[in-house]
Each structure stands twice: as C-alpha cells, then as structure tokens.
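Subject — a protein and its fold
Encoding — discrete vocabulary of local shapes:
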Amino acid sequence: MSKQVKFGGKFLQLTLCYWSALPLQSSAFVRCSSLCPKDFLLRARVLNLYRQALRTAQRAPVHARAELRQTIRQEMEKNRNCNDKQRIRFLISEGLERLKGLDEMLDMQGH
C-alpha cells in the first residue's frame, strides 16, 4: 500500500513496507518492488551518500552551510537520471572521496 504526497514541488510515493521516497514519473508510480536487489542496494548507497553529505554540511560554518547544501543537491540532481550502473558506482566513489576531503578540511578548521 502506498500514499502519494507532494513534497518540495514533486509528488512522492511513500510505501508502508519502509519509508522511501521515489519521484513519480509521468503520473505512474515507481514501485519499490520493481527494483532488483542490486539496484535497490545501489539506490541505498546513493541515498546514504546524500544523507552523509548533508550531515557533514551541518558542521560547516553558518555562513557557508546554505551554499554547501545547495551544491550537494545540485550534484545529486545533475546525475539523477543516470541509468549506467558502472557510472553510478563511479559517482558514488567520487562523492565519498570528495566527502572525505570536506570532512578532513572541517576537522582541521575545528568545526
């Protein structure tokens, strides 16, 4: 069972099996069950990277947080429609490296 809600100008599907938000495409529901296990795990890795990046952005100085969050979101949106699994894995590893660098920089600055 699922429920359609509007969030941030986009319609999302909330499923009862677990909390997930999938964008609706052309008014058709994107089903959780339509993802094969490998795709599901890859999607989970992408969402985990996004959450980690947003948590790290909270440690940045107040004047830089909004711009940093905006940059993180733009990077994710830029690659949102990528269907090449090899490219997605590359982007995840690149994102983790960039996140590690940001985290180290914030540690050195004492944030």
The longest strand covers residues 2-7.
